[in-house]
Amino acid sequence: MDSPSHSSVIIIGAGISGISAGKVLAENGIEDMLILEASDRIGGRIRKENFGGVSVELGAGWVAGVGGKEPNPVWELASQSGLRTCFSDYSNARYNIYDRSGKIFPSGVAADSYKKAVDSAIEKLRSLEANLDSEVTEQPRSPKTPIELAIDFILHDFRDGREVNGLSVKTEVEPISTYVDFGEREFLVADDRGYEHLLYKMAEDFLFTSEGKILDNRLKLNKVVRELQHSRNGVVVKTEDGCVYEANYVILSASIGVLQSDLISFRPPLPRWKTEAIEKCDVMIYTKIFLKFPCQFWPCGPGKEFFIYAHERRGYYTFWQHMENAYPGSNILVVTLTNGESKRVEAQSDEETLEEAMGVLRDMFGPNIPNATDIIVPRWWNNRFQRGSYSNYPIISDNQDVHYIKAPVGRIFFTGEHTSERFSGYVHGGYLAGIDTSKSLLEEMRKQKERKSESQTFLLEPLLALTGSLEAVPSLHKCDIPTQLYLSGKVGLQEAIL
Ligand SMILES: Cc1cc2nc3c(=O)[nH]c(=O)nc-3n(C[C@H](O)[C@H](O)[C@H](O)COP(=O)(O)OP(=O)(O)OC[C@H]3O[C@@H](n4cnc5c(N)ncnc54)[C@H](O)[C@@H]3O)c2cc1C
Protein backbone atom coordinates (compact mmCIF):
# COMPACT_ATOMS: atom_id res chain seq x y z
CA MET A 1 0.00 0.00 0.00
CA ASP A 2 1.27 3.51 -0.85
CA SER A 3 2.17 5.74 2.08
CA PRO A 4 0.26 9.04 2.14
CA SER A 5 1.97 11.54 -0.11
CA HIS A 6 1.53 15.23 -0.77
CA SER A 7 1.62 16.85 -4.22
CA SER A 8 1.03 20.34 -5.52
CA VAL A 9 -1.49 18.98 -8.01
CA ILE A 10 -3.17 15.61 -8.47
CA ILE A 11 -4.69 14.95 -11.88
CA ILE A 12 -7.38 12.29 -11.96
CA GLY A 13 -7.42 10.42 -15.27
CA ALA A 14 -4.78 9.78 -17.92
CA GLY A 15 -6.80 10.36 -21.09
CA ILE A 16 -5.84 13.07 -23.57
CA SER A 17 -7.09 15.90 -21.32
CA GLY A 18 -5.30 14.60 -18.21
CA ILE A 19 -2.05 14.14 -20.14
CA SER A 20 -2.23 17.55 -21.85
CA ALA A 21 -3.01 19.16 -18.47
CA GLY A 22 -0.03 17.38 -16.90
CA LYS A 23 2.29 18.41 -19.70
CA VAL A 24 1.44 22.09 -19.23
CA LEU A 25 2.02 21.83 -15.47
CA ALA A 26 5.34 20.02 -15.97
CA GLU A 27 6.45 22.64 -18.49
CA ASN A 28 5.62 25.33 -15.95
CA GLY A 29 7.81 23.86 -13.26
CA ILE A 30 5.19 21.97 -11.22
CA GLU A 31 7.51 19.10 -10.41
CA ASP A 32 5.46 17.35 -7.73
CA MET A 33 2.41 16.63 -9.83
CA LEU A 34 0.80 13.20 -9.77
CA ILE A 35 -1.62 11.52 -12.17
CA LEU A 36 -3.93 8.83 -10.75
CA GLU A 37 -5.52 6.61 -13.40
CA ALA A 38 -8.25 4.06 -12.65
CA SER A 39 -7.44 1.61 -15.44
CA ASP A 40 -4.21 -0.22 -16.21
CA ARG A 41 -3.23 2.02 -19.13
CA ILE A 42 -3.11 5.59 -20.34
CA GLY A 43 -5.36 6.77 -23.16
CA GLY A 44 -8.91 6.61 -21.77
CA ARG A 45 -11.28 6.78 -24.72
CA ILE A 46 -8.35 6.58 -27.13
CA ARG A 47 -7.78 2.86 -27.20
CA LYS A 48 -6.38 0.46 -29.76
CA GLU A 49 -6.70 -3.29 -29.82
CA ASN A 50 -4.85 -5.83 -31.91
CA PHE A 51 -7.48 -7.56 -33.98
CA GLY A 52 -7.06 -9.89 -36.91
CA GLY A 53 -3.41 -8.93 -37.33
CA VAL A 54 -3.91 -5.15 -37.36
CA SER A 55 -4.56 -2.40 -34.85
CA VAL A 56 -8.18 -1.21 -34.60
CA GLU A 57 -9.39 1.83 -32.66
CA LEU A 58 -12.19 0.94 -30.25
CA GLY A 59 -12.55 4.58 -29.18
CA ALA A 60 -11.59 7.65 -31.19
CA GLY A 61 -10.58 6.65 -34.72
CA TRP A 62 -10.59 9.88 -36.70
CA VAL A 63 -8.53 13.00 -36.41
CA ALA A 64 -11.52 15.24 -37.03
CA GLY A 65 -11.53 18.93 -37.92
CA VAL A 66 -8.69 19.26 -40.42
CA GLY A 67 -8.07 21.54 -43.41
CA GLY A 68 -9.53 24.82 -42.11
CA LYS A 69 -8.05 28.26 -41.57
CA GLU A 70 -6.40 27.31 -38.30
CA PRO A 71 -4.35 24.20 -37.65
CA ASN A 72 -5.98 21.58 -35.44
CA PRO A 73 -3.34 20.94 -32.73
CA VAL A 74 -4.07 17.20 -32.69
CA TRP A 75 -3.49 17.02 -36.43
CA GLU A 76 -0.19 18.84 -35.86
CA LEU A 77 0.79 16.31 -33.18
CA ALA A 78 -0.16 13.48 -35.56
CA SER A 79 1.96 14.97 -38.34
CA GLN A 80 4.95 15.62 -36.06
CA SER A 81 4.92 12.09 -34.69
CA GLY A 82 4.49 10.50 -38.12
CA LEU A 83 1.16 8.87 -37.30
CA ARG A 84 -0.13 7.04 -40.36
CA THR A 85 -3.61 8.19 -41.35
CA CYS A 86 -5.81 7.96 -44.41
CA PHE A 87 -8.39 10.40 -45.72
CA SER A 88 -11.85 9.13 -44.98
CA ASP A 89 -14.94 10.56 -46.61
CA TYR A 90 -18.30 9.15 -45.63
CA SER A 91 -20.28 11.60 -47.75
CA ASN A 92 -20.59 8.94 -50.48
CA ALA A 93 -22.24 6.51 -48.07
CA ARG A 94 -25.65 7.77 -49.18
CA TYR A 95 -25.08 6.22 -52.62
CA ASN A 96 -24.52 2.80 -51.06
CA ILE A 97 -27.78 2.31 -49.16
CA TYR A 98 -29.00 -1.30 -49.23
CA ASP A 99 -32.54 -2.41 -48.55
CA ARG A 100 -33.35 -5.68 -46.81
CA SER A 101 -33.39 -7.60 -50.08
CA GLY A 102 -29.86 -6.48 -50.96
CA LYS A 103 -30.86 -3.87 -53.56
CA ILE A 104 -29.05 -0.53 -53.59
CA PHE A 105 -31.43 2.44 -53.63
CA PRO A 106 -31.14 4.38 -56.92
CA SER A 107 -28.81 7.36 -56.51
CA GLY A 108 -31.60 9.85 -57.33
CA VAL A 109 -33.86 8.50 -54.56
CA ALA A 110 -30.96 8.47 -52.08
CA ALA A 111 -29.83 11.99 -53.01
CA ASP A 112 -33.41 13.32 -52.68
CA SER A 113 -33.93 11.72 -49.27
CA TYR A 114 -30.58 13.05 -48.16
CA LYS A 115 -31.31 16.58 -49.31
CA LYS A 116 -34.71 16.57 -47.60
CA ALA A 117 -33.14 15.38 -44.34
CA VAL A 118 -30.36 18.01 -44.50
CA ASP A 119 -32.85 20.81 -45.29
CA SER A 120 -35.05 19.77 -42.42
CA ALA A 121 -32.03 19.55 -40.04
CA ILE A 122 -30.97 23.08 -41.02
CA GLU A 123 -34.52 24.39 -40.70
CA LYS A 124 -34.82 22.82 -37.26
CA LEU A 125 -31.51 24.38 -36.18
CA ARG A 126 -32.60 27.80 -37.41
CA SER A 127 -35.86 27.57 -35.51
CA LEU A 128 -34.06 26.29 -32.42
CA GLU A 129 -31.69 29.23 -32.64
CA ALA A 130 -34.54 31.69 -33.08
CA ASN A 131 -36.34 30.20 -30.08
CA LEU A 132 -33.28 29.66 -27.94
CA ASP A 133 -34.90 31.13 -24.85
CA SER A 134 -38.42 29.91 -25.38
CA GLU A 135 -39.81 26.44 -25.51
CA VAL A 136 -39.67 24.77 -28.89
CA THR A 137 -42.59 22.51 -29.67
CA GLU A 138 -41.78 19.56 -31.91
CA GLN A 139 -44.04 19.06 -34.90
CA PRO A 140 -45.51 15.55 -34.94
CA ARG A 141 -43.54 13.57 -37.52
CA SER A 142 -44.98 11.12 -40.00
CA PRO A 143 -43.66 7.56 -39.70
CA LYS A 144 -40.38 7.26 -41.54
CA THR A 145 -39.42 4.78 -44.25
CA PRO A 146 -36.29 2.62 -43.79
CA ILE A 147 -34.21 4.89 -46.06
CA GLU A 148 -35.32 8.01 -44.15
CA LEU A 149 -34.55 6.29 -40.86
CA ALA A 150 -31.10 5.32 -42.12
CA ILE A 151 -30.30 8.87 -43.26
CA ASP A 152 -31.69 10.27 -40.04
CA PHE A 153 -29.33 7.97 -38.18
CA ILE A 154 -26.30 9.24 -40.13
CA LEU A 155 -27.21 12.89 -39.60
CA HIS A 156 -28.25 12.75 -35.98
CA ASP A 157 -26.59 9.76 -34.37
CA PHE A 158 -23.51 9.00 -36.39
CA ARG A 159 -22.32 12.61 -36.43
CA ASP A 160 -24.65 14.10 -33.81
CA GLY A 161 -26.18 16.38 -36.42
CA ARG A 162 -22.90 18.26 -36.49
CA GLU A 163 -21.78 17.53 -39.98
CA VAL A 164 -23.56 16.77 -43.15
CA ASN A 165 -21.87 15.90 -46.38
CA GLY A 166 -18.63 17.58 -45.42
CA LEU A 167 -20.53 20.72 -44.48
CA SER A 168 -21.20 21.53 -40.87
CA VAL A 169 -24.89 22.06 -40.20
CA LYS A 170 -23.77 24.47 -37.53
CA THR A 171 -21.88 26.60 -40.03
CA GLU A 172 -25.08 26.92 -42.03
CA VAL A 173 -26.66 28.82 -39.17
CA GLU A 174 -23.58 30.47 -37.69
CA PRO A 175 -21.00 32.25 -39.85
CA ILE A 176 -17.75 30.29 -39.78
CA SER A 177 -15.78 33.45 -38.97
CA THR A 178 -17.33 33.59 -35.49
CA TYR A 179 -15.34 30.64 -34.24
CA VAL A 180 -12.10 28.76 -34.58
CA ASP A 181 -12.10 27.07 -37.97
CA PHE A 182 -10.14 23.82 -37.87
CA GLY A 183 -11.94 22.59 -40.97
CA GLU A 184 -14.25 19.73 -41.84
CA ARG A 185 -11.97 17.04 -43.20
CA GLU A 186 -11.39 13.81 -41.30
CA PHE A 187 -8.51 11.35 -41.34
CA LEU A 188 -8.71 7.80 -40.11
CA VAL A 189 -5.84 6.64 -37.94
CA ALA A 190 -4.25 3.61 -39.59
CA ASP A 191 -1.15 2.98 -37.56
CA ASP A 192 -0.20 -0.14 -35.60
CA ARG A 193 0.98 2.09 -32.74
CA GLY A 194 -2.59 3.38 -32.52
CA TYR A 195 -4.02 6.86 -31.94
CA GLU A 196 -2.69 6.46 -28.38
CA HIS A 197 0.82 6.88 -29.76
CA LEU A 198 0.14 10.64 -29.61
CA LEU A 199 -0.41 10.41 -25.86
CA TYR A 200 2.80 8.45 -25.34
CA LYS A 201 4.67 11.07 -27.39
CA MET A 202 3.19 13.89 -25.30
CA ALA A 203 3.95 12.07 -22.06
CA GLU A 204 7.46 10.85 -22.86
CA ASP A 205 9.21 13.84 -21.29
CA PHE A 206 7.40 13.89 -18.00
CA LEU A 207 5.76 10.51 -17.29
CA PHE A 208 8.36 8.05 -18.56
CA THR A 209 12.07 7.42 -18.14
CA SER A 210 14.30 7.44 -21.21
CA GLU A 211 13.94 3.61 -21.19
CA GLY A 212 10.17 3.99 -21.42
CA LYS A 213 9.42 3.00 -17.81
CA ILE A 214 6.65 4.81 -15.92
CA LEU A 215 7.88 7.43 -13.42
CA ASP A 216 6.03 6.10 -10.38
CA ASN A 217 6.09 9.43 -8.58
CA ARG A 218 4.26 11.01 -11.54
CA LEU A 219 1.80 8.36 -12.76
CA LYS A 220 0.00 5.64 -10.86
CA LEU A 221 -2.19 3.17 -12.76
CA ASN A 222 -5.02 1.06 -11.26
CA LYS A 223 -5.87 3.86 -8.82
CA VAL A 224 -9.63 4.26 -8.75
CA VAL A 225 -10.43 7.55 -7.02
CA ARG A 226 -13.56 7.18 -4.87
CA GLU A 227 -13.55 10.29 -2.70
CA LEU A 228 -12.41 13.90 -2.87
CA GLN A 229 -12.51 15.80 0.37
CA HIS A 230 -11.66 19.46 0.79
CA SER A 231 -9.32 20.00 3.72
CA ARG A 232 -8.06 23.20 5.23
CA ASN A 233 -5.36 23.78 2.65
CA GLY A 234 -6.13 21.38 -0.11
CA VAL A 235 -7.86 18.19 -1.13
CA VAL A 236 -7.60 14.68 0.29
CA VAL A 237 -7.93 12.01 -2.41
CA LYS A 238 -8.97 8.47 -1.45
CA THR A 239 -8.68 5.51 -3.78
CA GLU A 240 -10.55 2.20 -3.86
CA ASP A 241 -7.50 0.25 -2.67
CA GLY A 242 -7.42 2.28 0.55
CA CYS A 243 -4.64 4.71 -0.38
CA VAL A 244 -4.81 8.35 0.63
CA TYR A 245 -3.14 11.20 -1.23
CA GLU A 246 -3.14 14.89 -0.53
CA ALA A 247 -2.70 17.82 -2.87
CA ASN A 248 -3.04 21.57 -2.87
CA TYR A 249 -5.24 21.25 -5.96
CA VAL A 250 -6.96 18.55 -7.97
CA ILE A 251 -7.73 18.45 -11.69
CA LEU A 252 -10.55 16.00 -12.37
CA SER A 253 -10.72 14.72 -15.95
CA ALA A 254 -13.22 11.87 -15.50
CA SER A 255 -15.90 11.79 -18.22
CA ILE A 256 -19.35 13.37 -17.92
CA GLY A 257 -20.81 9.85 -17.57
CA VAL A 258 -18.55 9.20 -14.57
CA LEU A 259 -19.52 12.56 -13.03
CA GLN A 260 -23.18 11.54 -13.40
CA SER A 261 -22.48 8.21 -11.67
CA ASP A 262 -21.66 7.63 -8.01
CA LEU A 263 -18.07 6.51 -8.62
CA ILE A 264 -16.57 9.60 -7.00
CA SER A 265 -18.06 11.21 -3.90
CA PHE A 266 -17.30 14.78 -2.91
CA ARG A 267 -17.02 16.07 0.64
CA PRO A 268 -18.62 18.52 1.02
CA PRO A 269 -21.00 17.59 -1.81
CA LEU A 270 -20.74 19.54 -5.05
CA PRO A 271 -22.98 22.64 -5.09
CA ARG A 272 -26.33 22.48 -6.82
CA TRP A 273 -25.42 24.68 -9.80
CA LYS A 274 -22.71 22.15 -10.60
CA THR A 275 -24.70 18.94 -10.15
CA GLU A 276 -27.65 20.35 -12.10
CA ALA A 277 -25.42 21.25 -15.06
CA ILE A 278 -23.75 17.81 -14.96
CA GLU A 279 -27.13 16.06 -14.92
CA LYS A 280 -28.40 18.11 -17.86
CA CYS A 281 -25.65 17.03 -20.24
CA ASP A 282 -26.57 14.14 -22.52
CA VAL A 283 -24.16 11.25 -22.85
CA MET A 284 -23.74 9.69 -26.27
CA ILE A 285 -22.98 5.99 -26.54
CA TYR A 286 -21.15 5.16 -29.74
CA THR A 287 -20.08 1.59 -30.38
CA LYS A 288 -17.84 0.36 -33.16
CA ILE A 289 -18.18 -3.40 -33.61
CA PHE A 290 -15.32 -5.00 -35.55
CA LEU A 291 -15.77 -8.22 -37.55
CA LYS A 292 -12.98 -10.27 -39.13
CA PHE A 293 -13.66 -12.39 -42.24
CA PRO A 294 -11.63 -15.01 -44.09
CA CYS A 295 -12.07 -13.07 -47.35
CA GLN A 296 -13.59 -9.89 -48.74
CA PHE A 297 -17.15 -10.11 -50.14
CA TRP A 298 -18.22 -6.45 -50.04
CA PRO A 299 -17.62 -3.96 -52.87
CA CYS A 300 -14.36 -2.01 -52.65
CA GLY A 301 -12.99 0.84 -54.74
CA PRO A 302 -13.59 4.61 -54.84
CA GLY A 303 -16.73 5.76 -53.02
CA LYS A 304 -17.39 2.33 -51.50
CA GLU A 305 -15.64 2.61 -48.11
CA PHE A 306 -18.95 3.20 -46.31
CA PHE A 307 -22.31 1.53 -46.84
CA ILE A 308 -25.66 1.68 -45.16
CA TYR A 309 -28.33 -0.83 -44.23
CA ALA A 310 -31.89 0.49 -44.29
CA HIS A 311 -34.09 -1.31 -41.78
CA GLU A 312 -37.42 -0.38 -40.25
CA ARG A 313 -35.77 -0.26 -36.83
CA ARG A 314 -33.78 2.96 -36.51
CA GLY A 315 -30.06 2.41 -35.95
CA TYR A 316 -30.21 -1.38 -36.41
CA TYR A 317 -26.70 -2.17 -37.75
CA THR A 318 -27.09 0.85 -40.04
CA PHE A 319 -23.64 2.23 -40.69
CA TRP A 320 -20.83 0.04 -42.11
CA GLN A 321 -17.25 0.68 -43.11
CA HIS A 322 -14.60 -1.59 -44.57
CA MET A 323 -11.00 -1.29 -43.40
CA GLU A 324 -9.38 -1.95 -46.79
CA ASN A 325 -8.22 1.67 -47.21
CA ALA A 326 -6.58 1.65 -43.78
CA TYR A 327 -5.31 -1.92 -43.88
CA PRO A 328 -5.50 -3.52 -47.35
CA GLY A 329 -6.18 -7.24 -47.17
CA SER A 330 -7.26 -7.13 -43.53
CA ASN A 331 -10.82 -8.31 -44.36
CA ILE A 332 -12.30 -6.35 -41.48
CA LEU A 333 -15.68 -4.61 -41.36
CA VAL A 334 -16.83 -2.20 -38.70
CA VAL A 335 -20.46 -1.39 -37.92
CA THR A 336 -21.46 1.55 -35.72
CA LEU A 337 -24.30 1.39 -33.22
CA THR A 338 -25.41 4.15 -30.87
CA ASN A 339 -27.37 4.82 -27.69
CA GLY A 340 -30.27 2.34 -27.23
CA GLU A 341 -28.84 -0.16 -29.71
CA SER A 342 -25.43 0.12 -28.03
CA LYS A 343 -26.93 -0.60 -24.63
CA ARG A 344 -28.85 -3.53 -26.08
CA VAL A 345 -25.79 -5.22 -27.59
CA GLU A 346 -23.69 -4.50 -24.52
CA ALA A 347 -26.20 -6.52 -22.51
CA GLN A 348 -26.14 -9.57 -24.78
CA SER A 349 -23.39 -12.06 -25.57
CA ASP A 350 -20.94 -11.40 -28.40
CA GLU A 351 -22.23 -14.58 -30.09
CA GLU A 352 -25.75 -13.09 -30.25
CA THR A 353 -24.36 -9.85 -31.67
CA LEU A 354 -22.35 -11.78 -34.25
CA GLU A 355 -25.46 -13.65 -35.31
CA GLU A 356 -27.45 -10.43 -35.71
CA ALA A 357 -24.65 -8.75 -37.68
CA MET A 358 -24.31 -11.78 -39.96
CA GLY A 359 -28.08 -11.71 -40.58
CA VAL A 360 -27.79 -8.09 -41.71
CA LEU A 361 -24.79 -8.81 -43.95
CA ARG A 362 -26.65 -11.76 -45.52
CA ASP A 363 -29.62 -9.46 -46.24
CA MET A 364 -27.24 -7.14 -48.07
CA PHE A 365 -24.82 -9.56 -49.74
CA GLY A 366 -26.69 -12.86 -49.99
CA PRO A 367 -26.79 -16.13 -48.05
CA ASN A 368 -23.45 -17.50 -49.24
CA ILE A 369 -21.05 -15.06 -47.59
CA PRO A 370 -18.61 -16.61 -45.10
CA ASN A 371 -19.08 -16.34 -41.36
CA ALA A 372 -16.97 -13.87 -39.43
CA THR A 373 -14.11 -15.56 -37.62
CA ASP A 374 -13.78 -12.98 -34.83
CA ILE A 375 -15.66 -10.04 -33.30
CA ILE A 376 -14.98 -7.23 -30.83
CA VAL A 377 -17.88 -5.50 -29.09
CA PRO A 378 -16.60 -2.59 -26.94
CA ARG A 379 -18.71 -1.82 -23.88
CA TRP A 380 -18.32 1.91 -23.21
CA TRP A 381 -21.60 2.19 -21.32
CA ASN A 382 -20.87 -0.62 -18.88
CA ASN A 383 -17.30 0.55 -18.29
CA ARG A 384 -17.57 2.26 -14.91
CA PHE A 385 -14.57 4.49 -15.78
CA GLN A 386 -16.41 5.84 -18.84
CA ARG A 387 -20.21 5.40 -18.65
CA GLY A 388 -20.69 6.34 -22.28
CA SER A 389 -18.65 7.57 -25.22
CA TYR A 390 -18.80 11.37 -25.09
CA SER A 391 -20.82 14.38 -24.02
CA ASN A 392 -23.57 15.46 -26.35
CA TYR A 393 -24.59 19.07 -25.80
CA PRO A 394 -27.45 20.43 -27.87
CA ILE A 395 -26.00 21.74 -31.13
CA ILE A 396 -27.49 25.16 -30.43
CA SER A 397 -26.92 26.16 -26.84
CA ASP A 398 -25.77 29.23 -24.97
CA ASN A 399 -22.86 27.30 -23.43
CA GLN A 400 -23.91 28.16 -19.89
CA ASP A 401 -24.02 24.50 -18.85
CA VAL A 402 -20.52 23.93 -20.21
CA HIS A 403 -19.30 26.88 -18.15
CA TYR A 404 -20.85 25.46 -15.00
CA ILE A 405 -19.50 21.96 -15.68
CA LYS A 406 -16.05 23.44 -16.23
CA ALA A 407 -16.02 25.91 -13.32
CA PRO A 408 -13.78 24.95 -10.39
CA VAL A 409 -15.28 24.15 -7.00
CA GLY A 410 -12.89 25.19 -4.28
CA ARG A 411 -9.59 23.56 -5.08
CA ILE A 412 -11.05 21.04 -7.52
CA PHE A 413 -10.65 22.01 -11.16
CA PHE A 414 -12.53 20.23 -13.94
CA THR A 415 -11.33 19.24 -17.39
CA GLY A 416 -12.10 16.74 -20.18
CA GLU A 417 -13.79 16.91 -23.57
CA HIS A 418 -17.10 17.76 -21.85
CA THR A 419 -15.59 21.05 -20.60
CA SER A 420 -14.71 22.23 -24.10
CA GLU A 421 -17.06 24.92 -25.33
CA ARG A 422 -16.45 24.42 -29.00
CA PHE A 423 -15.04 20.94 -29.44
CA SER A 424 -16.79 18.77 -26.85
CA GLY A 425 -16.93 15.14 -27.93
CA TYR A 426 -13.64 15.27 -29.83
CA VAL A 427 -10.04 14.35 -29.09
CA HIS A 428 -8.93 17.93 -29.83
CA GLY A 429 -11.66 19.12 -27.42
CA GLY A 430 -10.08 17.03 -24.66
CA TYR A 431 -6.57 18.12 -25.61
CA LEU A 432 -7.43 21.84 -25.58
CA ALA A 433 -9.51 21.51 -22.40
CA GLY A 434 -6.52 20.03 -20.55
CA ILE A 435 -4.33 22.95 -21.58
CA ASP A 436 -7.02 25.48 -20.70
CA THR A 437 -7.70 24.03 -17.24
CA SER A 438 -4.00 23.85 -16.39
CA LYS A 439 -3.53 27.47 -17.40
CA SER A 440 -6.46 28.51 -15.18
CA LEU A 441 -4.98 26.54 -12.31
CA LEU A 442 -1.51 28.06 -12.79
CA GLU A 443 -3.14 31.49 -12.71
CA GLU A 444 -4.96 30.58 -9.49
CA MET A 445 -1.71 29.31 -7.96
CA ARG A 446 0.00 32.57 -8.91
CA LYS A 447 -2.78 34.59 -7.28
CA GLN A 448 -2.68 32.41 -4.20
CA LYS A 449 1.03 33.10 -3.87
CA GLU A 450 0.38 36.83 -4.15
CA ARG A 451 -2.34 36.66 -1.52
CA LYS A 452 -0.01 34.85 0.84
CA SER A 453 2.63 37.48 0.38
CA GLU A 454 0.00 40.15 1.08
CA SER A 455 -0.59 38.37 4.42
CA GLN A 456 -4.29 37.86 3.81
CA THR A 457 -4.02 34.17 4.28
CA PHE A 458 -5.62 34.15 7.71
CA LEU A 459 -8.93 35.08 6.11
CA LEU A 460 -8.68 33.39 2.74
CA GLU A 461 -7.47 29.92 3.67
CA PRO A 462 -10.59 28.96 5.64
CA LEU A 463 -12.69 30.37 2.82
CA LEU A 464 -11.00 28.15 0.29
CA ALA A 465 -11.59 25.11 2.43
CA LEU A 466 -15.28 25.86 2.59
CA THR A 467 -15.89 26.79 -1.01
CA GLY A 468 -17.17 23.36 -2.01
CA SER A 469 -20.11 23.50 0.38
CA LEU A 470 -21.40 26.80 -0.90
CA GLU A 471 -24.04 27.48 -3.46
CA ALA A 472 -22.08 30.34 -4.99
CA VAL A 473 -22.64 30.51 -8.75
CA PRO A 474 -19.25 30.76 -10.45
CA SER A 475 -17.99 33.76 -12.29
CA LEU A 476 -17.91 32.50 -15.85
CA HIS A 477 -14.66 34.01 -16.88
CA LYS A 478 -12.41 33.87 -13.86
CA CYS A 479 -11.42 31.35 -11.29
CA ASP A 480 -10.69 33.81 -8.53
CA ILE A 481 -12.38 31.67 -5.92
CA PRO A 482 -12.32 33.84 -2.81
CA THR A 483 -13.45 36.86 -4.81
CA GLN A 484 -16.32 34.86 -6.27
CA LEU A 485 -17.42 33.89 -2.81
CA TYR A 486 -17.18 37.35 -1.49
CA LEU A 487 -18.99 38.88 -4.44
CA SER A 488 -21.71 36.27 -4.67
CA GLY A 489 -23.30 37.75 -1.55
CA LYS A 490 -24.61 34.28 -0.68
CA VAL A 491 -22.38 34.08 2.33
CA GLY A 492 -20.76 36.68 4.51
CA LEU A 493 -17.08 36.48 5.18
CA GLN A 494 -17.70 35.98 8.88
CA GLU A 495 -20.22 33.21 8.22
CA ALA A 496 -17.86 31.39 5.88
CA ILE A 497 -15.06 31.43 8.39
CA LEU A 498 -17.32 30.08 11.11
C1 LIG B 1 -16.26 4.89 -29.58
C2 LIG B 1 -15.73 6.32 -29.60
C3 LIG B 1 -15.44 6.90 -30.80
C4 LIG B 1 -14.93 8.21 -30.83
N1 LIG B 1 -14.55 8.73 -32.03
C5 LIG B 1 -13.88 9.91 -32.06
C6 LIG B 1 -13.25 10.33 -33.26
O1 LIG B 1 -13.27 9.63 -34.28
N2 LIG B 1 -12.60 11.52 -33.24
C7 LIG B 1 -12.53 12.30 -32.12
O2 LIG B 1 -11.94 13.39 -32.16
N3 LIG B 1 -13.09 11.89 -30.95
C8 LIG B 1 -13.74 10.70 -30.89
N4 LIG B 1 -14.23 10.23 -29.71
C9 LIG B 1 -14.17 11.08 -28.51
C10 LIG B 1 -12.79 11.10 -27.87
O3 LIG B 1 -12.31 9.79 -27.72
C11 LIG B 1 -12.91 11.78 -26.51
O4 LIG B 1 -13.49 13.06 -26.67
C12 LIG B 1 -11.56 11.98 -25.80
O5 LIG B 1 -10.71 10.87 -25.95
C13 LIG B 1 -11.85 12.23 -24.32
O6 LIG B 1 -10.66 12.46 -23.61
P1 LIG B 1 -10.75 12.87 -22.09
O7 LIG B 1 -9.37 13.03 -21.58
O8 LIG B 1 -11.70 13.99 -21.91
O9 LIG B 1 -11.46 11.63 -21.34
P2 LIG B 1 -10.98 10.12 -21.16
O10 LIG B 1 -10.22 9.66 -22.33
O11 LIG B 1 -12.18 9.35 -20.78
O12 LIG B 1 -9.98 10.20 -19.92
C14 LIG B 1 -10.45 10.18 -18.60
C15 LIG B 1 -9.64 9.15 -17.82
O13 LIG B 1 -10.11 9.19 -16.46
C16 LIG B 1 -10.05 7.88 -15.94
N5 LIG B 1 -10.95 7.83 -14.78
C17 LIG B 1 -12.30 7.87 -14.77
N6 LIG B 1 -12.75 7.80 -13.49
C18 LIG B 1 -11.65 7.72 -12.70
C19 LIG B 1 -11.48 7.60 -11.29
N7 LIG B 1 -12.51 7.56 -10.46
N8 LIG B 1 -10.22 7.53 -10.81
C20 LIG B 1 -9.14 7.59 -11.64
N9 LIG B 1 -9.26 7.70 -12.99
C21 LIG B 1 -10.50 7.76 -13.50
C22 LIG B 1 -10.51 7.01 -17.10
O14 LIG B 1 -10.08 5.67 -16.93
C23 LIG B 1 -9.85 7.71 -18.29
O15 LIG B 1 -8.59 7.14 -18.58
C24 LIG B 1 -14.73 8.92 -29.62
C25 LIG B 1 -15.03 8.31 -28.41
C26 LIG B 1 -15.50 7.01 -28.38
C27 LIG B 1 -15.75 6.34 -27.06
Automatic annotation (TrEMBL):
Gene Ontology BP terms: polyamine catabolic process
Matching InterPro entries: Amino_oxidase, FAD/NAD-bd_sf, Flavin_amine_oxidase, Flavin_monoamine_oxidase
Pathway involvement of the protein, from the record: Amine and polyamine degradation; spermine degradation
GO molecular function, one term: flavin adenine dinucleotide binding
Positions contributing to FAD binding: S17, E37, A38, V225
Keywords: Coiled coil, FAD, Flavoprotein, Oxidoreductase
Entries under Pfam families matching the protein: Amino_oxidase (PF01593)
Coiled coil, from the record: 111-138
Cofactor: FAD
Sequence similarity: Belongs to the flavin monoamine oxidase family.
Protein name in UniProt: Amine oxidase domain-containing protein
Native species: Salix udensis
